[in-house]
């Protein structure tokens, strides 16, 4: 049998920059990045897609953005800044996805130009996917404007939209060209989004960094009350841990079944879907972390006091730790628990669930004892 | 300014296997590959998408496929083999794309399972894209059944569909898990597909391998008449040159503007679109090669005799070397020539066109002299 072997590596590299007032004409962070990519032979184009929730709270923003890019050598902004709604709804809207693809076509965004998403994780997931499938991938820059997107989704390599009610069923791995985190955006966040975004930091601290968890625990009341310095540290360290895991754990595009950053997520994804996305992603993950932490305790892994510390941190953040859909419904299995198989399919391969061996140390299991799981749900209910 | 740097490499690796009668129970090539990927902990699934043009000529095939996979340890075939039409039309059909996504969902194809496309380049481009966007990329295996897909498209890393008449506007880079080239499929090819598929070999020989071009030239009449041994060599060497270029030229996912394998393609893509895909891809590329070879001659690069050799090889293959749409239309620019800008946008960045410095040696230019181009068109017309 004749045979030809293909084998190559592709390098992916991008910076996550932290800088306040990005579109202030005096702030050169973004301009410097772009100008380092300019080429004499032709002008590159920029297409900005803006989150309507951000635009509503920052009425001068579109004008600031237009002015800012006028100054950037070698780049030309498309004649229109496209403002679309924010929030999970945009990930349930295929026509909206295609309208972004149409804009990429209409404004001649080629593979050396940039699509720039400014908004929450939902908008960034949508924009990243539209960019990834147009011309087999145009470059995109992320400017995350929520706690969650600055500390997690915006700094990672994934995008996606929901399909037929299935969370992130359509999507791809497409690292951004760069990420710019501007804390000023966070000041206008709704309290629910401010608080729920912190959950990803709780998550990554629990599986990777006990000292970080201690710090979050100590800060949890101040964070919830809006302490910006504490929030800055939380976002920075959380982003750093995510970046390190993605780049350092050997499987950035998730070809294996191991997915430690999905701690607390198997039930969360299903809860989001079953509540029609009325639960925020972070709220659903809060519940997921609570259940899987208590389950880890019931397995004999986590001490009771550590389990209680985790629940207390989540409650200090005024986040939910239980949901009625986790319970059996009239003797039938909980629809969330029934979603375990769907989670396995989404990840692929063998069921792989991250649990906590101790605070700061995740460990994977390949099965869940359903009796123990319902017992964990019960404990969460009693600890609300 | 604080800053976190992400940097990682992703390895991509796959084999291109040549083997006759793939689905003969005695042929272990495909089974051995799959079984090497089996895992004890769970059964992986297989979903086969079959080209209707292939199925029509191989009426036992679906049954053979079903039987074949029954024997493969660790894998389970989906209850349905999905047969869809073949040909470019499937790339103009977004509902069909989503019906494949739906099948991936319905049959629980996870990221450790495989979608297997059996068919021409059009079907493989569609199937590869459906797989690439489902669950952020499920694995796919390609079983190309045309000359063109066995020697070029099927062994590469790209997929895609047309969008609003724009060739391959939607797509991605998604290397296959493996490729299996079975020459027996080629025996039922329509003469147009048999002949036009050889053009990609002419193309890659012209830009990279003079000895290969000499061989194709010597074989051109025999190839056209159906000589299977000559065809086997043509496909093997052409596939090998494509694989080597993709893996070895340092830019497998085409982040730069250089695209030597697109020699002859700038006009071809536009001609396909303008003729409503009545021209086969290979026929359009034949015209594109003719025009760009003559243009290379007019530039003083290629000798007149080499230019004539190229036209003769294409004509020996009974392929077109000219099209009326290349000419000015009532004093207006040719719509093909007007498509140069669209080609630039698709590739991105600076206009980059491969021409021939000599037979076996491509070289890039960044502008085309339109007067010279129309003169080249005229010469092609007179040499039909
Ligand atoms: N790609 C990934 O790796 C990844 C990882 C985690 C989460 N996610 C996804 O991220 C999404 C959640 O993102 P999110 O939590 O950022 O919420 P979101 O994007 O859904 O936004 C929530 C609300 O906040 C508004 N908003 C955004 N920025 C604002 C600002 N600065 N001021 C005022 N309002 C603002 C939005 O308009 C929206 O109404 C989910 O779809 C989740 O699945 C993706
Ligand atoms: N992805 C890439 O890198 C890449 C590269 C080059 C070309 N392409 C694409 O490939 C497509 C062309 O593919 P193609 O030339 O293979 O043609 P095709 O897939 O369009 O098929 C042509 C016809 O042959 C039929 N057919 C296929 N196999 C057969 C067989 N064994 N016996 C009988 N009939 C058979 C099909 O049903 C169809 O009617 C174009 O869309 C082109 O853009 C992609
Ligand atoms: Zn999350
Ligand atoms: Zn081609």
How would you characterize the overall build of this protein?
The structure is a homodimer. With about 375 residues, chain A is an alpha/beta fold. Helices cover about 45% and strands about 15% of the residues of chain A. Chain A has 16 helices and eleven strands. Chain A has helices at about 30-35, 50-55, 60-70, 95-105, 120-135, 145-150, 190-195, 200-210, 210-225, 230-250, 265-275, 280-300, 305-315, 335-340, 340-345, 370-380; strands spanning about 1-20, 45-50, 75, 80-85, 115-120, 140-145, 160-165, 165-170, 180, 355-360, 360-365. In chain A, strands 1, 2, 3, 4, 5, 6 and 9 form a seven-stranded parallel β-sheet that branches. A two-stranded antiparallel sheet of chain A has the order 7-8. In chain A, helix 4 crosses helix 5 and helix 11 crosses helix 12. The first copy, chain A, is globular. Chain A starts with a strand and ends with a helix. At the A-B interface, strand 1, helix 4, strand 8, helix 10 and helix 15 of A face strand 1, helix 4, strand 8, helix 10 and helix 15 of B. Strand 1 (about 1-20) of chain A pairs antiparallel with strand 1 of chain B. Bound molecules: nicotinamide-adenine-dinucleotide (2 copies) and zinc ion (2 copies). The site of one nicotinamide-adenine-dinucleotide has 32 residues of chain B, from helix 2, helix 5, helix 6 and helix 12. Chains A, B: Keywords: Amino-acid biosynthesis, Aromatic amino acid biosynthesis, Lyase, NAD. Chains A, B: GO terms for molecular function: 3-dehydroquinate synthase activity.
């Amino acid at each position: 049998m004749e045979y030809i072997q293909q084998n190559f590596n592709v390098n992916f590299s991008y910076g996550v920059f932290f800088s306040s007032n990005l579109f202030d004409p005096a702030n050169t962070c973004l301009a410097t990045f772009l100008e380092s990519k300019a080429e004499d032979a032709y002008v590159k184009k920029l297409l900005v897609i803006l989150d309507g929730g951000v635009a509503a709270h920052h009425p001068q923003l579109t004008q600031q953005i237009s002015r800012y890019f006028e100054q950037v050598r070698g780049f030309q902004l498309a004649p229109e800044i496209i403002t679309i709604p924010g929030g999970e709804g945009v990930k349930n809207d295929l026509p909206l996805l295609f309208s972004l693809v149409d804009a990429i076509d209409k404004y001649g965004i080629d593979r050396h130009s940039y699509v720039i998403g400014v908004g929450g994780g939902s908008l960034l997931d949508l924009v990243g996917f539209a960019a990834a499938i147009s011309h087999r991938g145009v470059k995109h820059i992320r400017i995350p404007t929520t706690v969650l997107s600055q500390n997690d989704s915006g700094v990672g390599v994934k995008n996606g939209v929901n399909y037929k009610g299935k969370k992130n069923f359509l999507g791809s791995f497409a690292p951004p060209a760069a990420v710019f985190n501007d804390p000023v955006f966070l000041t206008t966040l709704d309290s629910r989004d401010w608080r729920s975004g912190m959950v990803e930091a709780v998550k990554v601290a629990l599986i990777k960094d006990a000292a970080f968890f201690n710090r979050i625990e100590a800060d949890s009341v101040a964070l919830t009350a809006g302490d910006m310095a504490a929030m800055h540290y939380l976002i920075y360290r959380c982003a750093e841990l995510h970046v390190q895991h993605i780049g350092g754990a050997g499987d950035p595009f998730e070809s294996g079944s191991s997915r430690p950053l999905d701690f607390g997520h198997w039930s969360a994804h299903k809860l989001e879907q079953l509540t029609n996305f009325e639960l925020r992603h972070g709220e659903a993950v809060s519940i997921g972390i609570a259940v899987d932490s208590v389950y880890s305790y019931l397995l004999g892994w986590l001490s009771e006091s550590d389990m209680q510390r985790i629940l207390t941190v989540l409650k200090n953040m005024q986040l939910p730790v239980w949901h009625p859909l986790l319970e059996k419904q009239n003797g039938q299995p909980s629809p969330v628990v029934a979603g375990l198989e769907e989670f396995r399919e989404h990840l692929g391969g063998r069921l792989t669930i991250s649990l906590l061996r101790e605070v700061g140390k995740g460990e994977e299991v390949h099965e869940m004892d359903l009796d123990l799981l319902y017992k964990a749900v019960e404990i969460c209910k009693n600890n609300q």
